[in-house]
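Q: what sequence does this backbone want?
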């Protein structure tokens, strides 16, 4: 189960144009977004380690997004 709160996910879906959003739909998107974020964070941490740092910086995340 996702750690992301459902209400902000619901707002994102509505912002994208949906008039109504089921709770299950928001939960499914939250689960997917969390999985994607964890993978992105892992790649970012790898870039930081490769650069000889322990701290993940914005540049690492930007590189991970492009990779």
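A:
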């Amino acid at each position: 189960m996702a750690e992301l709160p459902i209400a902000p996910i619901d707002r994102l879906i509505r912002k994208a144009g949906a008039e109504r959003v089921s709770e299950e739909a928001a939960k499914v998107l939250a689960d997917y977004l969390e999985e994607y974020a964890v993978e992105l964070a892992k790649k970012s941490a790898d870039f930081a380690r490769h650069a000889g740092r322990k701290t993940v910086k914005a540049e690492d995340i930007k590189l991970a997004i492009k990779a």
